[in-house]
Design brief:
The structure holds 2 protein chains of 2 kinds. Chain A is mainly beta. Chain A has 2 domains: 22-168, Sandwich (Immunoglobulin-like); 172-242, Sandwich (Immunoglobulin-like). Chain A has helices at 2-19, 160-167; strands at 23-28, 33-34, 39-48, 54-60, 67-71, 75-81, 86-90, 93-98, 101-110, 117-130, 134-147, 171-172, 178-181, 184-188, 199-202, 213-214, 218-222, 231-235, 238-242. Chain A has a 4-stranded antiparallel beta sheet with strand order 1-3-9-6, with helices on one face. A 4-stranded mixed beta sheet of chain A has the order 2-11-10-5, with no helix packed on it. Chain A has a 4-stranded mixed beta sheet with strand order 12-19-18-15, with no helix packed on it. By secondary structure, chain B is of the alpha+beta class. Chain B has a single domain (19-190), classed as Glutaredoxin. Helix content of chain B is 30%, strand content 20%. In chain B, a hairpin with a 4-residue loop joins strand 8 (132-136) and strand 9 (141-146). Chain B is globular. Mean pLDDT of chain B is 92; it is low at 1-16. Classes of the chains: A mainly beta, B alpha+beta. Chain A binds chain B through residues 61-64, 67, 90-93, 95, 126, 128, 130, 132-136, 205, 225, and chain B through 52-55, 90-91, 119, 123, 128-129, 152-154, 185, 187-195.
């Protein structure tokens, strides 16, 4: 009888641990080899539990961006490319978030002088996951890549997941005129954004206050704090980068 | 002399431009009413709180940072009011018996723990996150609003190297100086207001 109770308790505790898993992540290598000095794009595929969300690099008025800690001496992650976030408002608090499947691209740089052979790419990622409640979770990801100093002939074919991840990245814009007077921002829109519902996500500090206005050719908005005029114009799941 | 004039001018400027803090009237967990007018001539800290938020846990369970600040400054005459603006049933809103257990465990010792279930006081102050701190000087002016410190993280190990905004502001006020950083960026979980 005691054994039965113990087994039941163990089952329940393991079930609750599984039930509490709000975020999962895996590392995917579109190509499983690289030569020293090369940069390879790798994918961090994250799945967020239904109804929960995680945050963009500028989380907005609350929340926290995922924190990536990479382990290993033979490589560096030069850059993480963040996919387009979504606007989220709950009880008047505005955030930039991700739901469901999230695909980050990371630029993996194999250090020159790394000897041929397998090396492990490992990271701990801390996620703040929120619904009504907020819970911090840490996920470990790892994968091995073959370092090979011989030049291999490569096909031009792009891994389908990398192609999907690239489609979700902000696009570059050119010839967009912008103006900033203190916390008031004006963008002259390109033709493809005329008459679309728009949102602007600042790269670093600040969020757009509700009182933004939009004509066919201009998007005018104010930030809630001192903000640099860099970030993303977002419309219907796509985004366009506004840089310095 | 020039320095003295500068300090006087700076002090006068910050005093003149500090806005009166919104008045409040809330009940605590014992049913006692606390009004802002009860604390005339006192420095008041309003700490918007949700004990289940990972950012709050960083400063309570994982470090004792806020409990230590509460004890230190209450001993110096500061009134430290923790305010819970979580709507009933949302994260951070607890039945009294559970709240007492949590406070025993996390070491919280505010002057009082106030209930703001309809979120009216939180919204009047513009509290967006937990913890979000507002400091009212002895004249009833809002002289600080923002984060507990400068490092936006949930890691207790970051506290030591962070700029302790609230500690610095309270030290300045107690020494009769103007608060040098009146507004900082608060970080934390969104306040769980009723919709």
């Amino acid at each position: 009888m005691r054994l039965l109770i113990l087994v039941t308790l163990l089952f329940l505790s393991s079930f609750s641990a599984i039930a509490e898993k709000l975020v999962d992540a895996e590392l995917i290598l579109p190509r499983n080899y690289a030569h020293p000095g090369q940069i390879r794009q790798i994918i961090i595929k994250v799945n967020v539990k239904k109804d929960w969300h995680i945050y963009w690099k500028n989380p907005g008025e609350s929340g926290l961006a995922p924190d990536f800690t990479w382990h290993g001496d033979q490589y560096e992650i030069k850059k993480i490319h963040w996919p387009t976030p979504s606007y989220y408002e709950n009880a008047g608090i505005i955030n930039n978030i991700y739901k469901g499947e999230v695909l980050f691209i990371a630029d993996l740089y194999i250090k020159p002088g790394t000897k041929d052979g397998k090396i492990d790419i490992k990271a701990d990622i801390d996620f703040l996951s929120c619904r009504e409640a907020c819970i911090m979770q840490s996920v470990k990801i790892s994968e091995s890549i073959m370092v090979d100093s011989n030049n291999r002939i490569e096909t031009m074919q792009i891994h389908p997941l990398l192609s999907k991840a690239m489609d979700l990245l902000p696009r570059d814009t050119s010839n967009i005129s912008k103006k900033q007077v203190e916390n008031k921002f004006t963008l002259d829109l390109p033709k493809n954004l005329y008459n679309k519902s728009l949102y602007f996500a600042f790269d670093e500090d600040g969020i757009v206050m509700k009182k933004s206005s939009q004509s066919v050719t201009k998007f005018i908005f104010e930030s809630n704090e001192k903000s640099e005029f860099t970030g993303l114009i977002i419309s219907e799941g796509q985004s366009w980068r506004i840089s310095d | 002399m020039k320095k003295l004039l500068y300090l006087l001018a700076f002090g006068l400027t910050t005093t003149l431009f500090a806005a009166p803090a919104p008045s409040f009237e809330l009940i605590d967990t014992e049913g006692k009413t606390h009004k802002s007018s009860d604390y005339k001539d006192k420095i008041i800290v309003l700490e918007f709180i949700n004990y289940a938020c990972p950012f709050v846990k960083k400063h309570y369970n994982a470090s004792d940072n806020i409990p230590n600040l509460q004890k230190t400054y209450k001993d110096k005459g500061v009134i430290w009011l923790s305010v819970c603006s979580s709507a009933k049933g949302k994260q951070g809103s607890y039945p009294l018996s559970e709240l007492k257990k949590i406070q025993t465990k996390n070491g919280a010792s505010p002057s009082a723990y106030l209930l703001d279930e309809d979120g009216s006081v939180g919204k009047a102050y513009g509290a967006r996150v937990t913890p979000h701190i507002f400091i009212i000087d002895k004249s009833g002016n809002l002289v600080y609003q923002g984060g507990i410190d400068s490092k936006k993280s949930t890691k207790a190990s970051d506290i030591e190297s962070a700029e302790p905004y609230v500690k610095n502001a309270l030290d300045e006020l107690i020494q009769g100086k103007p608060v040098s950083k009146t507004k900082t960026k608060a970080y934390g979980c969104g306040v769980k207001y009723a919709k």
